[in-house]
Amino acid sequence: KVATKSIERELICPACKELFTHPLILPCQHNVCHKCVKEILFALEDSSADGGSESSNQSSPRIRVFSTSMDRIDRISRSGRKRNSLTPRTTLFPCPGCQHDIDLGERGINGLFRNFTLETIVERHRQAARAAIAIMCDFCKPPPQESTKSCMDCSASYCNECFKVHHPWGTVKAQHEYVGPTTNFRPKILMCPEHEMERVNMYCEICRRPVCHLCKLGGSHANHRVTTMSTAYKTLKEKLSKDIEYLISKESQVKAHISQLGLLLKETECNGERAKEEAIQSFEKLINVLEEKKSAALRAIEASKNLRLDKLRTQAEEYQGLLENNGLVGYAQEVLKETDQSCFVQTAKQLHVRIQKATESLKTFRPAAETSFEDFVVDTAKQEEILGDLSFYSNGLEIPEINEEQSRIYNKAVISWESPGKTDSADIYVLEYRKFNREEENVMWQEVEVCSRSKVISDLDDDSSYAFRVRGYKGSICSPWSKEVILHTPPAPVFSFLFDDKCGYNNERLLLNPGRTTVESRAGFPLLLGAERIQVGCYTTLDYIIGDTGIAKGKHFWAFHVEAYSYLVKVGVVSSAKIQKLFHNTHDTTSPRYEQDSGHDSGSEDACFDSSQPFTLVTLGMKKFFIPKAAADPKDAASRVLPMPSCLGICLDCDNGKVGFYDAGHMKCLYECEVDCSGIMYPAFALMGSAAIRLEEAITTKYLEYQDDL
């Protein structure tokens, strides 16, 4: 007998936290109720439709949607939609067991297997829990009798008498499979979800799931390694049996660990209470400091207020005395009544000084005190920022470091980081980024939670600089922020294209990879024959190749890598009107220094040669970048030669007729010139000798991959 009570935690759905009902096996090998899978997908679609608000499905109390960030819902809503008829539909499902986005494939929920074994175990558990509740016969006349067996073929329960009636001896029904009373009727044969009329008879070792022979012949498992179902059954059963025997043999060790965990639980309880007390004391200290500061500030404001009020009241009384028969004026009027000259002079002299001061104050009225308390405004912005970052710091949690070599910005930004100790000590990371602006210091940081050690960021502004920083969290403990890293976005939207393998492509001397993202010039036998005919002062033909997509308007940017061993490479743009001339350029076969009408070797022909080109190109080779002569001082040859960037970028502005060549690693413009954009413009490349060009790969979000562990 199975101790069903002890295994109940294995029978609980991670989504609804109840016993499994028709569990489905996800590609990550976790189980979720069929109803829960549907509810989670519906909740994600509703959240995305309502603006991406992160919330659970309020209409169903069973469901709990586990979503760590808004970015997950956004990714699911984008990846779950079909862009066009050529793009297969994929459905991403956030597994509540492992918290990862799982690709359910084109068939989505319909491509998942029901876990009948788990379903049977759950049913046995339910029967043990409700042993007092009998399963009644489905065919008895009222009142029904308690059933004694259930037929798996008929999907019904019978008492002894009804079973004999409906399964008479010597008939086909007598051969039906029957079990003890149950309400869980599963099919006898496991059918393929992709080919509903075929039973599964093989096991795919790559996808780790049962498949039928049609899946292997021409389906999605055609190139996968498969084995027979009997072999997989035997292998997995042997492995599982050995693992169970090993665990049973270590029962004493398990009990020791349980005892140790019991002590750790008590210790954790005590340490947690102690930590709470210490946290309370720390916050009370902060509160006391704030209360003292608050009291001091209020006292200072009150003292200043009283002083100002006293001054203003005194001034008001003085002005009140200037009224007739009142104060100073009244006193002066009484003095004027004095007839004794000596007494009048004695008193009037001092009084006259006061009257003059009062007269002057009337001419230049000025309040005795300021009414504004601007000097008493408390600036708490920095303190609020510091308190906002207030958290638990631990010496055991390392500060992550952003890997600048693996982090890059192209059509999107991918930021990678690592721990100095090469161990992932944090449970989750928080990546913050903001647009870098020297004029505005208080630009808000944007925050995103990440479970891995890399993140793809979209929707960044062109021709801008962004600061990135990251910190790790382990429970409530966090590390300090990493050092900020500044990365620059391209000067224009990224233009995507592949090398054109049709227009002018020379397959004898150029080699394209299958994806048409890399081109390499190869010095084969035809080049040897051409070189054998060359005697003096000549160089061999440049092999041209263009992009398969043109640009008619707007501003666009693309990047590529020129391999370090490349002898000579030219890169730039060409208009559609001059493509024919590009592939039949006579200047490519002999050097202008050897033309018959040239009587000297001054190099002036080079300037004429450059200006006569039907396209705009710059030269790279031997790990150098050469600026054209027109852009540099012809007397200073060294200023024309720069180190070749590891990644080169080209920015074409059709609206303003300009093309710029960039160090794409730092987004620094190396050279810019005007270009005629009257026609459709194409990216152009030329190679000679041993050389190779590789287009920069667009940044895409990569999801969790599962490895075979059989």
What this model shows, in words?
- The chain is α+β, with helices and mostly antiparallel strands and 710 residues long.
- Helices cover 29% and strands 21% of the residues.
- Among the domains are: 1-45 and 90-133, Herpes Virus-1; 231-387, no CATH class; 401-489, Immunoglobulins (Immunoglobulin-like), CATH 2.60.40.10; 510-586 and 613-695, Jelly Rolls (Sandwich), CATH 2.60.120.
- The two termini are 30 Å apart.
- Mean pLDDT is 77; it is low at 52-88, 586-612 and 702-710.
Q: Write the CATH architecture name of the domain at 510-586 and 613-695.
A: Sandwich
Q: Please tell me how large the radius of gyration is.
A: 42 Å
Question: Which stretches are low in confidence, meaning pLDDT under 50 for 5 or more residues running?
Answer: 52-88, 586-612, 702-710
Distance between the termini: 30 Å
Main sheet makeup:
7 strands, antiparallel
Strands, total number = 34
The percent range for strand residues is 15-25%
Mean model confidence by pLDDT? 77
CATH superfamily assignment of the domain at 510-586 and 613-695? SPRY domain
Shape annotation: flat
Task: Supply the CATH class of the domain at 510-586 and 613-695.
Answer: Mainly Beta
Query: Helix fraction?
Result: 25-40%
- What name does the CATH topology of the domain at 510-586 and 613-695 carry? Jelly Rolls
**How many helices does DSSP assign?**
13
Structural class: alpha+beta
Strand order of the largest sheet: 22-23-34-25-30-31-32
Domain B box-type: 187-229
Keywords: Coiled coil, Cytoplasm, Cytoskeleton, Ligase, Metal-binding, Microtubule, Repeat, Transferase, Ubl conjugation pathway, Zinc, Zinc-finger
InterPro entries: B30.2/SPRY (IPR001870), B30.2/SPRY_sf (IPR043136), Bbox_C (IPR003649), ConA-like_dom_sf (IPR013320), COS_domain (IPR017903), E3_ligase_FN3/SPRY (IPR050617), FN3_dom (IPR003961), FN3_sf (IPR036116)
Domain COS: 336-393
